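Hey team,

Filing this mostly as a record. A colleague (T.K.) asked me to run one chain through the structure pipeline before their review meeting, and I want the input and output archived in the tracker in case anyone asks later how it was produced. No errors, nothing strange. Just documentation.

Input sequence:
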Amino acid sequence: MDLRKANLADVIAAVNKIAHEATTTFGHLTVSQLNWKPSPDRWSVAQCFDHLLTSNNGYFPVVDNVLSGHKPTFWQRLPLLPGLAGSLLIKSLDPASARKIKAPKKFQPAQSDISGSVINDFIAQQGRIVEKMKATEHLDLERIVISSPIAAPITYSLMDAYRIIVVHEQRHFQQAKRVMEESAFPA
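Output structure:
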């Protein structure tokens, strides 16, 4: 599915699918398996999900702001930029893209051992994401422009924000699967 054109129902279905697949693929892993790293400069399964928890948390205040009737900022009122930024982010985060992207400092995962509850925490967060999405379904999601939790000048539609969440999760889900496929992954 090309997420750049996905509607809200498709995005919600994708969030629910990722939650289900996280349970079946990673829910059985031990704490040591979750925290195992293929090399010092690569992330563990737990770090992939810790990163998603942190980055997704950045969207909750943004959605709450929309629900409370936010006033657009200067950056959000600029024409063309929101449509362009959203589409570019969705394309660059696509799991099929071979291009590596360094996570912003505030979204870097924990460097020490991460709790064994990280998968359950992620699944619970998926439920909250779906709740927020459903709470905004009555709005014109393509026309509401928000600022990225990373930087205010980066703007995109709320619908693109939801698409970005999904494609970002898909990207790191695949990254976590690759960690498990390493020959040295603990049994």
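Quick notes for T.K.: The chain has a mean pLDDT of 85. The longest helix spans residues 158-180.
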